[in-house]
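User: Assemble these into one structure.

Assistant: Restating your components, then the assembled model:
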Amino acid sequence: MPTLDFRTAIRDALDEELARDERVVLFGEDVASVQGGVFAATPGLQERHGSERVFDTPISELAITGAAYGAAVNGLRPVIEIMFGDFLFLAMDSLVNQSAKFFYLSGGRGSVPLVVRSAVGAGGRFGAIHSQSPIGWFHNVPGIKVAAPSSPSEAKALLKAAIRDDNPVLFLEHKRLYGVKEEVDGDVPDVPLGRARVAREGADVTLVSVMKGVGDCLQAAEALAADGISAEVLDLRTLRPMDTDAILASLAKTHRLAVVEEGPANGGWGGEVLAVAAEHGLHDVDDVWRLATPEHPIPYSPPLEDAFLPGVEAIVASVRSRLGAASH
Amino acid sequence: MSASATTGAQAGAQTQDGLDLYRRMRLIRRFEDTIQSLFQKGEVHGTTHLYSGQEAVAVGVSSALGDEDRVAGTYRGHGHALALGVDPQGLLDEMLGRATGVCGGRAGSMNVIDLEHRLMGCYGIIGGSIAAATGASLALRRTGGVAVAYFGDGTTNQGYFHECLNFAKVMSLPVLYVCENNLYGEFTPWEDVTAGRIEARPETFGIPAVTIDGNDVWVVRDAAREAVGRARAGEGPQFIQAMTYRFVGHSRSDPGAYRKPGELEAWRERDPLKVARERLVGALGAGDADVDAIDAEVDEQLERMVQAGLAAPYPQPGPVPEFA
């Protein structure tokens, strides 16, 4: 069966949407270069679609994001790349104060069809300010969507959906996924934003995650199965809007739910999942908890960073411990 | 037709055109007077930043634009909106927080959007207008349009200014940057917090820049026509620094105690309405009665608008869609 890797999935989605709709434009730092950006996700797109639609920008996050907003409210459908998620903080005014509010403030007469691609996530020894996943910052902003794909096929489908969406969408690409390959048979089916998927069926506990965390949860579920624990893995795919129905449906089945979040628990999206369970599914809850990162910046040194992240072993140990405690 | 009759017809058209410019400026001035009075009565809420004194800039620039062009205004944006033809009643109702407001009462004074009248937005945080217009020009270059950003002297010290001027120049975008230098960033004299000359900054980027009398609507229009024409012809971004002065405080809470002695009085002599009236009754051959008639008509218009606005319904709270 043919394979699709995550980088190519991103490039193919961009290529197909650029070809499908001439209002789509792509710009950012180094995206038009021969290498196709620092993460090599966009090579060849300028050659195929021209320098007016695919172009490099100055290293100016404010200008890139602000210009994308201005272009979006005047008829284009820009896709921009903010190289590292940590750099999104430089562009918050444009994303939060302008893009996210335009639809509401305009009385619904205008919208901002904008996609902000950004590479996030730790594990690459990039240190404290090139490794963050700043989801909580955007989770608190009405008017913006946040997509966080877990695999090549999910990335391709969700990026196409994001480009076709009329709202600002933050599209997060986990750095540790760029090299991931997947067997894909034919075209990737469409996926709507805001809909989770059950990545593995289970009966005893639900593991909820996004991006690289989904793969970690799947590996953990495999290990737990050897212990006779049946774990369901829920890939939220889109964090905002969040598929609360899927969370509650899985909780009703397993009665135990753990969120695996690569980021601090304080103010994170995992807290929202637990709030959904408490507010709307309390009668189904035997146990809910979070695996998140410690409340300090992301360290550089390999043993420190490895211990910092909620990996497969930590997930397995946590589930064993909580289910053991619950059953005695 | 004789040569003198042609000249007479042209002069008549020029006079009428001048009266139209005057009417628009007068409408902005009286609109702002009305907002101030309604604010004091508790009918306009939060804060307001009035355009009084700067009318010639927006009216002059707008008179140089076409249907295909787009504008990004500022939090001092009532004048930017009215100069573009935004419905005055809809704008007033927005300030009053009514359902009939141009944004349904959702936006208020600092954040007005009216896409149908070419206003992509007004930006409550300085610099937003620069980014919005820069981005708009990426879209407008496909259709021959030009984007205009208004901003103040204070914004030239903001990150957006430097990032976007460079961005627009390297991409040769059709955008006109209009710096309204009213001498103060909030309460602080611009020269106390700004290194060098403002017009030297765009010049460093290779962007043509002119500094003009921002209180003479004809001077502004001529400069805007030239700049917009160059941008439309593919010559890239253009920059105008319009020297002007606000006759009121920065916002409603500012009495303007920082003004230098005699400064306000000196600028009052250069009131854009006074300048326009003098030119109309002088070189353009209008009568004082023609100008007085406009004043009276605008006053009546505002009175009717206030009555209608205060009678308009408030929007009802209720669920609204988060997404388009």
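Chain B is about 45% helix and 10% strand.
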